[in-house]
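input
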Amino acid sequence: MRQRRHQIFWFAVITFILCGVVQVSAGRLDLSTVLCIDEIIDLEPERSWIPVGCEVVDCCPGCPGPPIDWRINVRGDLLEAVVLKFENLAPEQASQLGIKGTGRWEGTNLQVGKGETLISGFNVGGSSALPVAVPRLVVNKEGVRRLQQTAAGEADAGKSPADQDKDRGQMEVLVEQMIGDYVVNEFRFIYRITRCPRPVLPSDKIDLDNNTTNDSAVILLDGRTGSTTCADDTIFRGSDIIDVGSVLTNGACNSEVAVFSDDNAMQFLTPVNSWTDPTTDVLRVNMTPILHAPVTFWLVRAGELARATGDLANANLLYNSNNVGIAFDGTFQDISGTAGAANTIGTGCANIGAIAGSAFFTPNRLNVYYVDSAFTGVNCTGNRNIIFVGTTANNQTLAHEFGHSFSLSPANSGGHTNGLPGFDGTNIMQGGGAGRTHFSEGQAFRMNVNVTSTINVNGVRTGPVRNPACAPLTTSNICPALALNATPK
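output
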């Protein structure tokens, strides 16, 4: 009996020593992973189950002992929350746990938002199965999208791989299990975010030279990409050298390239005969200065100089920001006090014959008449170089009427986009309304290459044209869809 008591004594001493270790030495699991930006989705970390309990002798998962609390920290700009899916935890047990912080239960799933949350009262004693949590990280998808766009822009701008692959922050979840004030177990999941190198694949390329301001240009490409496959208006974006995949010899396919860029004229290469079957071709496109269309403003109504000047500035802004490649140079003639001017010009297109034969018209350029009549604006079909602006116009009216002059007319209700698929009220060719800010690439293409556009009729542009012109509602292998667009702008 005495020997038995002696054994019990030393067992108690050893137990005391080991339990003291529990208070100062926690079991821990650190998982650190490098994550590519393009791979960020809602994540379930590998080897990620988290048992309730501690991991040293006499303080093991599921062993009897004091209640265990969890201190959870969720950090990282791209991390919205972590969802802990508990197994072997009944809903009534979950409801008895205390929560301080951002945690909330959905059945036996605990969603914990950013910051610190304390879950108190896990009772791991008894014979019931051990509660285990499986984490899933919930990311901010809009933040991921913005980060992907930033990284893609850096790649397109030609930044070095070292710059592109720099750390973009990290996401971290830390679960500390505690008995009282002492941490007895720790699980940490860290995702360091980087822009992983894109695989380098053989590709033909388009090289943009003299791309003013290094704009992210829009490229429309037609060409043969397979034995019987013809690419039609495939969209690429880039500022310098752009990979376009494998473009083969033309065969029976239409082969051409159109490039739209801020502060540069649209470039239209047709036909392109330099593609070969090996993916080693480089098509060089020399970007040229933006086209300047001359405009004479005839101010029939007194006091219109400030409005006409502002309308011109806004038209230049809209055409350039939408990569149309056309700017407007204005001269202003105040004829509000000139005898006979108002009678000769009138207030609409009925007088275009008299106007064209008068001193109030300059041939081979746009002529805009600000008149004293209650309407918005009109471009005369009998002479596309004549535009009227009335007293109810807004500061988008002039840009809209320039669009009509550049051939965006009359196949559908005067060339307006109202009700057409792919367009909304922000399109500049919407009839009426305010807040019109946008041209599609399909519209910019027509304004530049249609033989009927005054940019070609007046000799401002001398490049290849479509003759017959691409009508607004015509789509073919040589006429892109009117609503064809490249985003983001």
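quick obs: Residues 1-27 have pLDDT under 50 and may be disordered.
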